[in-house]
Amino acid sequence: MTGDAHHRDAVARVSGLSKNFDGAEKPALSDVSLEILTGRVTGLVGPDGAGKTTLIRILAGLMKADGGEVEVLGGKPGRDLADIGYMPQRFGLYEDLSVEQNLQLYAEMRALPREDHDETFARLLKFTDLDRFRERLAGNLSGGMKQKLGLACALVKTPRLLLLDEPGVGVDPISRRELWAMVQDLLGDGSETGQMGVLWSTAYLDEAEKCDTVYLLSEGELLFEGDPARLTGSVDDRVVRLTGFEPRRRQVLTRMLDRSDVLDGTIQGRSVRLLLQDKDALKGESGFDVTPATPRFEDGFIERLGGGPKGTSALAERYRRIEPGSGPAIEAQGLTKRFGDFTAAHDVSFSVPYGSIFGLLGPNGAGKSTTFKMLCGLLTPTDGSGAVAGHDLRTSGGEARAALGYMAQKFSLYGELSVQQNLNFFAGAYGLKGSDARAAVERVTDIFELGDRLRTDAGTLPLGFKQRLALAAAVLHEPPVLFLDEPTSGVDPVTRREFWMHINGLVEKGVAVLVTTHFMEEAEYCDEITLIYRSEQIAGGTPDELKAEAAQMADLDDPTMEDTFIAMIEASDASRQESEAA
Amino acid sequence: MSAAIDKRRLFAMIAKETRQILRDPATGLIAFFLPILLLFLFGYALNLDSTHTSIGIALEDESAAAQSLAGAYQNSRYFDVHMARTVQPLRDMMISDEIRGIVVIPQDFGKGYARGNPPRVQIITDGTMPNTANFTRSYAEGVLQTWLANEAADRGTSLEPPISLSLRFWYNPSLQSRMFLVPGAIAIVMTMIGTLLTSLIIAREWERGTMEAMMATPMHMAEFLASKIVPYFLLALVSMVLCTLLAVFVFGVPLRGSIWGLLAISAAYLMPALGQGLFISAATKNQFVASQVALLTGFLPTFLLSGFLFEISSMPTWIQAITYMVPARYFVPSLQSVFLAGDIWALIIPNIGILLLFGAGFFALCIRVTKRSLD
Hints:
The complex is a heterodimer of chains A (582) and B (375).
Chain A: E1 10-19, E2 29-37, E3 41-45, H1 52-59, E4 67-72, E5 84-87, H2 99-109, H3 117-127, H4 143-154, E6 161-164, H5 173-188, E7 197-202, H6 205-208, E8 213-218, E9 221-226, H7 228-233, E10 239-243, H8 249-257, E11 262-268, E12 271-276, E13 289-292, H9 297-304, H10 314-317, E14 330-339, E15 342-352, E16 357-361, H11 368-376, E17 383-388, E18 391-392, H12 397-402, E19 404-408, H13 419-429, H14 434-447, H15 463-474, E20 481-485, H16 493-508, E21 512-517, H17 520-524, E22 528-533, E23 536-541, H18 543-554, H19 561-581
Parallel strand pairs in A: 3-7, 3-8, 5-6, 6-7, 16-21, 16-22, 19-20, 20-21
Antiparallel strand pairs in A: 1-2, 1-4, 8-9, 10-12, 10-13, 11-12, 14-15, 14-17, 17-18, 22-23
Chain B: H1 7-23, H2 25-45, E1 53-59, H3 64-75, E2 79-84, H4 87-95, E3 101-105, H5 109-114, E4 122-125, H6 130-154, H7 178-208, H8 210-215, H9 221-249, H10 259-284, H11 287-305, H12 317-323, H13 328-340, H14 345-369
């Protein structure tokens, strides 16, 4: 690999780069060096707030570095903009222009010769499969289609440097895979696009594994650079899977994580996956079977960050024990929501017992948010019924809402209020008064170690602390039911582990959890999953059951949750097309 | 980034902006529906004329002359008259705002008049509403003068005061406020389009993330600004023409000047109006804040401080000083004179000069704040 790098040209080179923003606790970038070579995908990987966007903007000439050298296409950044394709996070599309008009605009801006317009547009529209939607307004495209149009606009005049800022964010796994394949196609064909240098930024660590070279950023610092296989290789024989144990898997995970020779652990269906300090750490112990597991990029990342958190949740230890009522904690019976002619959710039914996690999975716009909102009492079902902690949503919506804690990774905190003010507000909002409220706020402040930051504005907190604060606010009133809306997308793996460590602890205390996600790792934590696609439940079961089903359906060997998800959606599309054809 | 402005990119950006304008229903609403609404509002609903003002007449004298004078007030089309024997009940009515003024015809009015003395009539007005008080007084005096003239004519003698004052209201002889309100409304409409509408458009690009994508192309910032100015300039002129047609053909406002004078002064006014809107938009980068700032610094001053509704010469000195900072102050009088008097170039040309200076100032500010950078 390193051998042929000498034959490639660098289209961009950065060394010792630093960038500070006023009022920020830490520099956005400090001493970052990187090289983008032609003909390959360079991954810029890291959680939200790592500095990826800042680095890309500096390369695109949109921001100035505070220190260090930046060379783009052999000159200063911002000079040869016609030769740079840039796709910002929100794709940079004009939503009130049609697909074709967007392409036309970018073609003119980048001075694509007029005589080449028709041919180029035809090629790009075919390539992105948007030919049918030429006349459609960009605003009326789905997330995945917008992303493809964004790519087409960046490619309208074949650039020498293609900068893609989190093209996969907010887009379902299928669209993400398609986009990846498209970029691979561009580099693979022998034409001039093969001579492009591509910088692909992502918060999804599984995408990192597919890049030719990876730069791993965390809080502005470069943690790793080079072939992703090298990072994965560093943990090679220390990743194991535990199976065949007796107690509940969450208890096993907690016990394992509390050991000093276990660096990290997650739940994968019925089994527990661990990263060990030493490959022989579990030798000779009984009560479970140990098999080697495939190491992932994320394992290497966690190790570089110093390992994941320990297993015992301080939150769970101080949480009240939830006494299960007679019925299930959450129940949905034939929930249906129609908006005019459009059915957003059709006949969704499930029930969640106390002490378990239930996942609603599906691509964007599939209907999972609608279902979620009906159960929160934010939307009135057109048909069907639901109950939370035994309170019927139609007759006692207020009681139902009081019994649940709600957390979304985005939007749920008031950025202009301090940590203390946010907690006080949510204590009041959940009906806690006087000394109860004070005690609850003190308790979560203590558990989540927020004491030093009580006066800080929530909006300026580092992402990890925002995450903690959001969870702290949701559990102030010790609810028996928790609703989580994409709780950990974009956060770094250590913060994510910490979050799920708390959730796992709460579930052991009897709390019922409903989570919506299109993030596959979160799905692995679920006891049961229902897959929603085109407003319908297309599959359901435990993660292991779903994987087994998908393995059979698509003839896959040991599929990941993402493979499973994609296989099931493709199968659903295929059967729908058949029935439409018939 | 290339140093020169590229025609192709500029046309592409203008085409894009035009498409957005045509597709956005709000633009049509502000550019075409709003002018019509405003014109009808100022043309019909808002009326500064004093037809039917309520006044009281304290008829303390019972002579034929006094009765006749009271009758003259009752027959006047300007007044609704409440009759009383003394001032007292009328005073209460004035306090409770039922009437705007009192005409007192005193006890010895008939006797004195019969002796040939000048008639003694007292006119009391409500000083808390100076505008109304003023025209109530002048109309009340007018009625008295007319009555005296008629009396004299009846007796076969003509009343010949030592100096005869003959009033003429030039350019708006019937003194209809509609005549100057409608041209003024055109200034309001052009401010709405020039400042309010454009204050949203750069902020919108920032909010939607398209600004970032555009800045990553070879686009020149001057091209960007020009692409915003040209379509909105044309849109505002189209709207102005629509307003003029309505003014002339629906409201009967004369257009005594030429269409060229009208276009020249309007185009000049659009420079500061557009410049201000774009500056607000570029500086705030937020549609909500931009619209508030545009209302406060663009729309309200045009409404209140341009001489459109309130005469500048009757404002306190320090407010008069502020009006010199309001571009519309130079536009409204020129517009009114083009409609009501004609192309008075001696008035229009200096005003055009001042407006262009304001415009240049705003554009300079715009270029300062629209940096090609996200820092």
